[in-house]
Amino acid sequence: MIRVNAKMLAKFCGSAATIAAGFALTAAPVSVQAQAAVSGNSLDLPENFEMLTNPDPNVRKATAVVNGHVITGTDLDQRVALLVDASQSEVGPEEMQRVRSQVLRNLIDETLQIQAAEAEDITISQAEIDQTYTRLAAQNNRQMEEMESYLLSIGSAPASLKRQIHGELAWQRLLRQKVAFFVNVSAEEVNELMQRLEASKGTEEFRLGEIYLSSTPESQAAVEANAMKIVEQLRQGGSFVAYARQFSEASTAAVGGDLGWIRLPQLKNAQLETVAKEMQPGQLVGPIAIPGGYSILYLIEKRQVLTADPRDAILSLKQIQIQFDPAAAQDVNEARLQGFLQGIQNMRGCGSANEIANSIGASVVDNDQIRARALPEQLQQVVLNLSVGEMTPPFGDVAEGVRVLMLCGRDDPEVQAGPNFDQLMQEIEDERINRAAQRYLRDLRNDAYIEYN
């Protein structure tokens, strides 16, 4: 369904088993003529029944023992703190309970992955873990000591992040040894994909983020409700990357749900294709019902396949600006504005800009290496439509000043060559590894002994 990067950890978030305890001595009678509540339900569950114990399993899921390994309440608290801090939004009590339940499932999966790697004599050295930890600190513009202080200040700990790194590295290495080695892609498959790519030249390509939650007919309502809560948190300012890492069941969870640059047919779902085609950069849509679960899509950016993006042009600009005195009378500032507008009309290209600007009391700022996409979105197309020596319409106000941008040069980007043979082969391999990895982890869950405290 989605393209993945097999070089990153596949962090899956599936349902964990629960163990009921403390049955009551008596219970209300249950219908003996029960039928499946949902069409196709092979479990033959009754429609009417009474719970014998507390129906909320989250109440007693504080910790877990996974094949003998204890996940403590502290482990859970510290990992939850990482997610809450990354979400950058307030998490209410009800949402917090759901987050804790999900994070516990993540910790269980992480433990199963580490245990499976150890069973294959795969060892991750402390030096490897520390190296990755140091790199993460640098990516967050922090020294080692600053990183540790920061983690402690939010209620987490270096040990918690390093445990997550351990799980990622162990699972990555295990997949290479047990899964990737057996994945084969033929040259014919790659050549066929290259031909389709060339045929689609000029069509749109999308960089999407996705959060995928799987469901069964029995769990569909609960999963949909969970997905809607996630969307609500994201609309309130939550970090898509953070929520994807903790909640998405796709292997791209490890990279914050980023599918990379794809063409819509690669989604392999007509519903997702239709939705994504109408989205604009920065837009969030979901939950979207698809076979097997629900998807939440976030459009990061879009471009045209094998076509140079004009927004990648390198521009040479002059910004000509005049400031106003907010305390001055309105007619004074109006006269100053009219003088500015008359002055820029007299400019004949970039050669005369500085001299005329100086004569009308305006300032000039030069920038010879600015990419068009770095401009505010409402200015990008205006500037790209200019010829050398032309200016944008004046914009601004008395408080911030009025300015124009004059185009003095433009270097257009080269046409994209597109992915080569090896890159396309890697994409196909990654997709197949993703599917095999999901089956592998599902088997690990099915064979695990898990006890909740």
Automatic annotation (TrEMBL):
Q: Iron-sulfur among the record's keywords?
A: no
- PROSITE patterns xrefs: PPIC_PPIASE_2 (PS50198)
Matching entries from InterPro entries are given as: OMP_Chaperone_SurA (IPR050280), PPIase_dom_sf (IPR046357), PPIase_PpiC (IPR000297), SurA_N (IPR015391), Trigger_fact/SurA_dom_sf (IPR027304)
Instruction: Cite a single GO MF annotation.
Output: peptidyl-prolyl cis-trans isomerase activity
Question: What sequence ranges are listed for the domain PpiC?
Answer: 203-301
* Position of the signal peptide: 1-36
Q: What is this protein called?
A: Parvulin-like PPIase
Q: Which organism is it from?
A: Qipengyuania psychrotolerans
Source taxonomy lineage?
Answer: Bacteria, Pseudomonadati, Pseudomonadota, Alphaproteobacteria, Sphingomonadales
